[in-house]
């Protein structure tokens, strides 16, 4: 399990993208009590998070924001 704690979201997303390029597996970035963390699996249910995915065929990294609405129990995914 990869772990990275940083208070700055921008630098955390860059580290997640670099880690994803190494093995083409998605990285999940989410807030913790000490900043942001990068892991190989999504955070606990109902927590908003970002996903960094590397596509080796196109040689590009895509980013998504996954948000939960606790009132409706719906998930929204936005490419950023």
Return residue spans where pLDDT drops below 50 for at least 5 consecutive residues.
none
Distance between the termini: 25 Å
Number of helices: 1
Strand line-up in the sheet with most strands: 2-1-3-4-5
User: Strand content of the residues, in percent?
Assistant: 35-45%
Oligomer: single chain
Morphology call: globular
Total strands: the figure is: 5
Number of domains: 1
Provide the descriptors you would attach to this structure in a database record.
alpha+beta; 80 residues; single chain; five-stranded antiparallel β-sheet
Would you kindly provide a written description of the structure presented here, covering whatever features stand out?
The two termini are 25 Å apart. The chain has a five-stranded antiparallel sheet with strand order 2-1-3-4-5. The chain has one domain (9-79). It is 19% helix and 42% strand. The chain has one helix spanning 9-23; strands at 27-32, 35-39, 49-55, 60-69, 74-79. It has 80 residues and is α+β, with helices and mostly antiparallel strands. It contains one helix and five strands; from the N terminus they run H-E-E-E-E-E. The chain is globular, with a radius of gyration of 12 Å. The mean pLDDT is 88. The longest helix is centred in the first third of the chain and has 15 residues, at 9-23.
């Amino acid at each position: 399990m990869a772990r990275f704690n940083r208070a700055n979201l921008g630098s955390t997303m860059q580290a997640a993208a670099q880690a994803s390029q190494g093995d083409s597996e998605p990285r999940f970035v989410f807030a913790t009590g000490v900043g942001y963390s990068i892991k190989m699996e999504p955070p606990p249910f109902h927590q908003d998070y970002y996903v960094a995915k590397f596509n080796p065929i196109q040689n590009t990294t895509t980013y998504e924001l996954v948000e939960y609405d606790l009132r409706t129990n719906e998930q929204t995914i936005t490419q950023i």
